Amino acid sequence: MRIHWGLAIAVGAAFAWVNMARALGSEIDHVRIDGERDGAFISIEGAFQDPRYAVRAREDGRLIIIDIDNAALPPGGIETRGTSALIARTVASSTAQGARIELKLTDKATYHARASNDRITVDLRRGGAAARAKPKTSAGSSAPRIERVDLEQRDGRDRVVISVQGDAEFRVSTRAGAPPRLEVLGARVNPDVKRRLEAPRDALIGSVELEQKGDRAIVEVHGSEGAAGTAIRSGDRIVWMFSPTTTETRPHSRTIAREKDYAAEVDGPEVAGFLSQLPMQIGRKQDQRYSGRRIDLDFKDADIHNILRLLSEVGGVNVVTADNVGGTVTIRMRDVPWDQALDVILQAKGLGMVRQGNLLRVAPLAQLEQEREAAIARQKQQQQLAPLETRLIPVSYATAQGLQPRVRELLTDRGTVSVDTRTNMLIVRDIVGQLDQVEDLVRSLDTQTPQVLIESRIVEASSTYSRDIGIQWGGAAVMSSATGNPTGLRFPSDIGIAGGVPVDNAPTQGLSPFNGTVNNPNFAVNLPAVTGNGAGGALGLTMGSLSGAVNLNVRLSAAEAAGSVRIISSPRVLTLDNKEASISQGTLIPFSQVSAQGVNTAFQEAKLELNVTPHVTSDGAVAMDVKITRNEPDFGRVGANGDPTILEREAVTQLLVDDGDTAVIGGIYTRNTGRNVDQVPFLGDIPVLGVFFKRRRFREDRNELLIFLTPRIVNRALALPE
Comparing C-alpha atoms, which of 502, 506, 485 is closest to residue 494? Predict the structure, then answer.
């Protein structure tokens, strides 16, 4: 009986692994290592339909990490065949995206990776071996040269294609917080090669930069946070391929703790249709679907053992019945799935079934319930008798007191957790299995808090235009015996005409070449434009007779002004995720307040201020609550006491912006236009001649305000791992 149970468990585990590997799409068979003196050749063999992998070096080329997406490791780990003096240790593990193989090397090395339908090969070369083997070349010898760098998009990947003339070695290095770098050793860059390439908007990478540093050419890729790179040598080209690390924008959730399930496991398409999650056929949902082969049954007083043997043969499963299962069955069914027929028969006889491996065990419901309760009791007893272990778990970025309630939820009744505040460490005591779950929980939660740099830019542009055209004219005429031109009549013998507009504050400059001002210019029309130092101009004209009997004074004035102003303010502040930050700069303006206690001096703030609370989403975007204020005093407009008014500009909003993108969160555009005409009634309306009786003024003011906001996650690589 024990042998049968062992075989059932082994077969069930094998089926589970096969199904999992089929779901993932890749099955790793083994890793073969062929060693050489100065290198090694690694071959990862398996059933790869479309291998998606990434190879990167760490620890200055002493650690090679190979990540294979959607790949599964076989039960018991992979088998490593062969050895090499360059490889010290090989470690294989499962990740959230697939499988990872780590190669710990004894010396620095460079790698070349290739992939085919059934294997992934990595060729390792000791870092200094090639340099020692080759003799030093003179300046005139043929050194490797980079002739061209291109960007291509093919098969959902971005490719950086480097055309190299000559035999050259290269290596790829990736560091946290730094862009991926490919170094071509001993190569020179052709002066005609373009040093910077910009990728299209829909590309996985942002840009590529090429530079010459010493005796090597360096290619850096910027903006590749969401892609994994793999470099291979193809003829006279080095192809650096970048593939998306995940097909979803949101990261996968990770299960770090799971209670043991005492229910029967279901795997295999032939029995999954009729096995419930509980070991008994109780509590079954009414909408359960059956997918077995349809059969016809017609029996009277048939032994239940024979019926079960028949259904076992039809469904291709193994059925074992308990000793206390017996009785007869009378059934008549047509075109019914065999698994539904089995379910109905067991319910009619008060029986239940349990799946164990590849076997179906049929027993009374009461017996199965007792076995289930006994299994739960044994598990609890083992938990109570298991030895306790105390583990110190350090916390780096979070606070141990903040994680203590989350840890307490995973502990058993015998477990305890305490906090050492000085060292920020958790002291956990429990059984070993629970301690491992607690440590996984702490490692998942104890991550760097994202830091966000918020940069705002407030741009103000204003323009003004004004035009003022005025006229002043007048004079005097006298007909009298004193001037020698009487009218010759008895009445009126003398006639005098003169302009009668007051000239208390009217400008009179320019009416006399000898005097700066004229006390009595006798203006008949006094509509001057506002002129002065730096504003407009005026021209005076005086005409008169020799005897002074007739005088005419004309003064033309005109002023036109245009101006534009542009003000740029750029406050920026750095803060943690979900923490409010504020930065301000301005002045305090004193003003007087009159009250019963007398005159008091108060202060009003006029400042530039940025208040923001960022929240970094799981896909790397930044949601922000923003309030931007720009107030300034306006001394051109004052109150009754001479205190200046405050010009307020404010924007309050909530928005979501991708990391590094710029958003325009608001804008105000104003335009004020005014036209004024001052004239003498009736005379100013005369066509053509009316211009001598009117003053025309025009003014236009335009003002535009734009507010830009740019968030940047400064520690994205560590706070938001892919």
Answer: 485
